[in-house]
Design goal:
heterodimer
Chain lengths: ~525, ~170
């Protein structure tokens, strides 16, 4: 079969483009270089969307004519190589100045690149070449907008011609500007259009969208103030779709918070929430803004709504299983810590209990829960938590000390039990850092208790001494005084013994000093009791 | 003078980096992958060196370190503000306005008309090629033929008629 016969039967249409390309490749291989076949091959590949193969085929044609440059320019557009496309269309235009396609494509590629001056130069010629009157009119609108956007004089002036344009032209212009590769250029053109069409929702919405993206570019460079000012310039008069309004208010809220204007941030986030009803990310933003203001009562419900909506709709770090569960656990634990720092035990308990649901066998969380139950004076729950902890951390010597936490101190006997317990566990596990650490905490809790008991007994003793000194001897009920002094002496001696026992267990310097001073004070009181008894 | 009447806008110092968070510092979504993290970090390092970003290089490096640590990233996720909402409106808009999408104007195309008369390719004439092909004459002797014929005629082996020696010794293992 001859090659020209192959070409006669090759249907260069979209459906058969692949077969055509195959046959054309074969024809080129067998028939040597042929520009016509290379061109058809390029077209066949282009119709299949194989831009690179099409480019290779077109580049086989030497020297390329205007149409080849046009084709190469179109391929570059498909590959979003705007500069390369512009170069090709310019070449096509040089070779064929009467080509409307080359002029039109170069004009719009220049617009896409934000090269307004180039576009303005091309527009008169494009209007001359345009085959349809409607097209000529549209190009006229583009020219007016470009002139308005580049001239500072007409910034705020309404252009009557732009005011009268059809909805279709308006939509076409907005779509064109949305596709410009440079958002700054899009903003300038849309602002010029919006000035002349202030009542058009399509234009106003597009302007807001472009401004939001422009603000995002400023935020990317941490220019919060500039972004906030930019958004403030258009926000008030805008009434667009709710999601866009919510996005705008949210971005303004973030900018305000980053500018340390938390009050403003809170009001923006709250307004954004009114637009969308509920959104986990907005609740989180609002909760954080309240928290940074130290307004926990208002932050609390926002965190709760965030926890409730924490699911797969929220973004998750890639390649991490159970990210949302971990996030929920982390958020709940953190919020519980905030309450713990403020010694609001019941609130903290609430969130640790919720966190435990995500990690029911996590010993650290159970331990935390145990301490919180202790602080909240819930011994029964604390005991249950300790039982679970014993199951999870079998053989942990620290847990014996946790048992001592459950003792409610009412008298010296309870203090002695705690001190004896600490002594027993410490001797059983000498040098165990965890035991030593926990023992130090327990001693730290017990020392003030001993000091408090000593204070109570000292007050009783002072009262008796005061009465004995104040009253005449015959009015003193000496047998009762003797009884009281004997009892007090016994109590002081017992306390002295306990203090003596706790001294070697005390590692902290402050506690050691307190124990020493307490011991000396008790010794003095014992002396007084003895002298009184005599 | 108008300038004297303009209010003075005071901008406070930015909050500490822990409050800004690594996601805002690097301009990342909270589900950013390793490739995005590296790309955004590298871009911001360039900006920082050129003084085009209002944040010190140290904080940019800190943000990358935090985000690359799974545990710290999780904690940062909790304590960082979200620039976008759950339906990702801002990301969609950014994508639409970044020129990353398709061209929003209709490029004009004009392909050359198919003028088949122009297509001429010099191919060799098939009849002449056929004429030029020299077919070699077959050899008179084929040494393999007798052997092939002998093998074909040989009687096939029938396992039921194989001759066995009845005096042959039996299997010692039985």
């Amino acid at each position: 079969m001859r090659t020209d016969t192959i070409l006669d039967v090759v249907p260069v249409a979209d459906s058969a483009a692949a077969r055509a390309a195959m046959l054309l490749e074969e024809a080129l291989d067998n028939g040597g270089a042929n520009d016509r076949i290379a061109y058809l091959l390029g077209v066949a590949y282009k119709r299949q969307g194989k831009w690179s193969a099409a480019r290779t085929a077109f580049q086989r044609i030497a020297p390329p004519d205007a149409n080849i440059h046009l084709q190469l320019g179109l391929l570059s557009l498909h590959e979003r190589q705007w500069n390369q496309a512009s170069h090709e269309f310019r070449q096509a235009r040089q070779l064929d100045p009467a080509s409307y396609e080359a002029c039109h494509n170069l004009l719009f590629t220049s617009l896409t690149l934000g090269q307004f001056e180039v576009a303005l130069e091309l527009l008169p010629r494009a209007r001359e070449l345009a085959p349809e009157p409607a097209e000529r009119q549209f190009l006229g609108l583009v020219q007016r907008l470009l002139e308005n956007s580049t001239s500072s004089d007409t910034d705020e002036r309404i252009d009557l011609e732009l005011l009268r344009i059809s909805e279709e032209d308006e939509r076409r212009l907005v779509t064109l500007f949305r596709g410009l590769a440079q958002v700054d250029a899009a903003c300038r053109l849309l602002r010029a259009l919006a000035t002349s069409r202030p009542n058009s929702p399509t234009v106003q919405e597009a302007l807001l969208e472009a401004t939001l993206v422009q603000a995002k570019a400023l935020i990317d460079r941490c220019k919060w103030g500039a972004a906030e000012r930019l958004l403030a310039s258009i926000a008030d008069e805008f009434s667009g779709p709710r999601p866009i309004r919510a996005a705008l208010l949210n971005v303004r809220g973030v900018c305000a918070c980053m500018n340390q204007n938390l009050e403003d941030g809170v009001s923006r986030f709250a307004a954004a929430l009114k637009q969308v009803g509920a959104d986990a990310r907005l609740h989180q933003n609002l909760a954080l803004a309240y928290e940074w203001q130290d307004d926990y009562p208002r932050a609390d419900p926002q965190w709760n709504r965030y926890f409730d909506q924490l699911d797969s709709r929220l973004p998750a770090a890639p390649r991490q299983t159970n990210y949302h569960e971990d996030l929920a656990y982390e958020s709940l634990s953190r919020w519980a810590t905030s309450y713990t720092e403020k010694e609001r035990w019941s609130k903290a308990l609430l969130y640790v209990e919720r966190a435990l649901k995500f990690r029911p066998r996590d010993a650290a969380t159970v331990e935390r829960l145990f301490h919180l139950y202790n602080h909240a004076r819930m011994p029964a729950e604390a005991k249950k938590a300790l039982e679970l902890l014993r199951e999870l951390r079998a053989g942990d010597p620290q847990l014996d000390l946790f048992e001592l936490d459950l003792i409610e101190v009412k008298n010296l006997g309870d203090v002695e039990t705690i001190i004896n317990g600490i002594d027993t566990v410490s001797s059983k596990h000498p040098g165990n850092p965890k035991v030593e650490e926990r023992a130090a905490v327990l001693i730290g809790n017990v020392v003030p208790l001993m000091a408090g008991l000593c204070q109570q007994m000292t007050e009783q003793l002072s009262k008796v001494v005061d009465q004995v000194r104040r009253l005449p001897s015959y009015q003193v009920n000496w047998p009762t005084v003797q009884d009281v002094i004997r009892n007090l002496l016994r109590e002081f001696q017992k306390l002295r013994r306990i203090v003596g026992k706790s001294a070697p267990l005390t590692k902290n310097a402050d506690h050691r000093r307190m124990v020493r001073e307490l011991g000396e004070l008790i010794d003095r009181k014992i002396e007084i009791c003895r002298s009184m008894r005599g | 003078m108008a300038e004297e009447d303009d209010p003075i806008v005071l901008e406070l110092a930015p909050p500490p980096r822990e409050r800004v968070g690594p996601f805002l510092l690097l301009g990342l979504e909270k589900d950013a992958d390793a490739q995005e993290i590296e790309a955004h970090w590298a871009q911001r390092v360039i900006w920082a060196r050129k003084g085009q970003v209002d944040v010190p290089l140290e904080n940019i490096n800190w943000a990358r370190e935090i985000i690359n640590d799974a545990e710290k990233r999780l904690q940062a996720d909790v304590t960082s503000l979200n620039l976008d909402l759950t339906d990702r409106v801002l990301a969609r808009l950014e994508n639409a306005y970044s020129g990353a999408g398709a061209v929003t104007w209709q490029p004009l195309d004009r392909e050359k008309p198919h003028d088949w008369s122009e297509t001429r390719v010099d191919l060799p004439d098939a009849a002449r090629i056929r004429k030029d092909i020299v077919v070699p004459a077959p050899r008179e002797e084929f040494p393999a033929v007798p052997r092939l014929l002998a093998e074909m005629l040989r009687e096939p082996i029938d396992p039921w008629r194989l001759p066995f020696d009845s005096a042959a010794p039996q299997d010692s293992t039985s």
